[in-house]
Specification:
Pfam families: EndIII_4Fe-2S, HHH, HhH-GPD. The protein has 212 residues and is mostly helical. Helices cover 61% and strands 0% of the residues. Helix 4 (61-76) runs antiparallel to helix 5 (82-100) and helix 8 (139-148) packs across helix 9 (156-166).
């Protein structure tokens, strides 16, 4: 895919949604961090239902740590893998209090040192909470990047690096949100909704399938 196509794709996505946001509900970098940890192999809707109950009771590292694993589990037991997530969150809260003064660190290295925080989670927090140039590649973004031809790659790290290189600079900061929303609601896994897609004429998946 050439640079002109990519520019037009993101121009249209920006036009349709000038200020894209995550669908996770949060009011602080810490709340976002915990919500993203909880969202692994779970839906944002499911996470929001749990955190709507949790955060009014405890929404700081010290407060959630005070709940303990069992106490936290009561709030998040509707979320998949809640036992292991509860352990990770409690340990993360302990480290935030002891090493970071209760604040969420703003570097990938420090974030990835927290239990339950991998590269994708760190990138979400850096980009969404701290507005740093970072690209969190989940299954939706991986699919959209490969299917459309925007940034094809064999694994998530390759796609991440290509997106950071190829997405037009003026759109890079918000491109994570546009791509994930596009993959979640339009360029879905099994039956992509090509007929209602704003970038259908620019997408190389459509061209391939029509040529076959």
């Amino acid at each position: 895919m050439n640079a002109a196509k990519r520019l037009e794709i993101f121009r249209r996505l920006h036009e349709d949604n000038p200020e894209p946001k995550t669908e996770l509900a949060y009011s602080s970098p810490f709340e976002l961090l915990i919500s993203v940890i909880l969202s692994a192999q779970s839906t944002d809707v499911g996470v929001n239902k749990a955190t709507t109950r949790l955060y009014p009771v405890a929404n700081t590292p010290a407060a959630i740590y005070a709940l303990g694993v069992e106490g936290l589990s009561e709030y998040i037991k509707t979320i998949g893998l809640f036992n292991s997530k509860a352990k990770n969150v409690i340990e993360t809260c302990r480290l935030l209090v002891e090493r970071h003064g209760g604040e969420v660190p703003q570097t990938r290295e420090e974030l990835e040192a927290l239990p339950g925080v991998g590269r994708k989670t760190a990138n979400v927090v850096l980009n969404t909470a701290f507005r740093q140039l970072a690209m969190a590649v989940d299954t939706h973004i991986f699919r959209v990047s490969n299917r459309t031809g925007i940034a094809p790659g064999k694994d998530v790290v390759e796609v991440e690096k290509k997106l950071m290189k190829f997405v037009p600079k003026e759109y890079l900061l918000d491109s994570h949100h546009w791509l994930i929303l596009h993959g979640r609601y339009v360029c879905v896994a099994r039956k992509p909704r090509c007929g209602s897609c704003r970038i259908e004429d620019l997408c190389e998946y459509k061209q391939k399938t029509s040529d076959d």
